[in-house]
């Protein structure tokens, strides 16, 4: 009897956690079993005029598909984009001269990752680090409808 109460309590707590949702450290969970994660893989430091890759990895660690994700990636003026690639099924919109890239991900299946890659060259000038590289994802099932992640690159 005591074991049944314990299982009921644990189940109730999990349901409450799923319904209220959480958002920490580039990860968000929804009541539908979706666990959406953003990682930014960028070098900690680069030399002046150095090249490197900034990878934005979108992951679904839940049990249901995540559909209709809109992603904005904003790069600071200290990073010049030499090349940009993305996975299949992802649409990109970018105005020349703009520092913001807009992506549309139609469907991200459970256990799937997709990568948005930016090959960049640094131009720090007198600064010791780049401005913020920021990623914002919008999807109707996410808490507050969005998830945000940011990082910087330092001068080597």
Describe this entry's structure for a reader.
This protein has 156 residues and is mostly beta strands. It has a single domain (2-155), classed as Immunoglobulin-like. The chain is 12% helix and 51% strand. The protein has one helix spanning 2-20, and strands at residues 22-24, 27-29, 35-41, 45-46, 51-60, 66-74, 79-86, 90-93, 100-108, 113-122, 133-138, 146-151, 154-155. The strands form three sheets. It has a six-stranded antiparallel sheet with strand order 1-2-3-5-10-7. The termini are far apart.
Distance between the termini: 62 Å
Cα shape: elongated
CATH architecture: Sandwich
Low-confidence stretches: 6-25
Strand content: over 45%
Mean pLDDT over the full residue set = 84
Number of helices: 1
If you compute it from the alpha carbons, what radius of gyration comes out, rounded to the nearest whole angstrom? 19 Å
| DSSP strand count | 13
Short account of what is shown:
With 156 residues, this protein is mainly β. It is 12% helix and 51% strand. Strand 1 (22-24) and strand 2 form a beta hairpin.
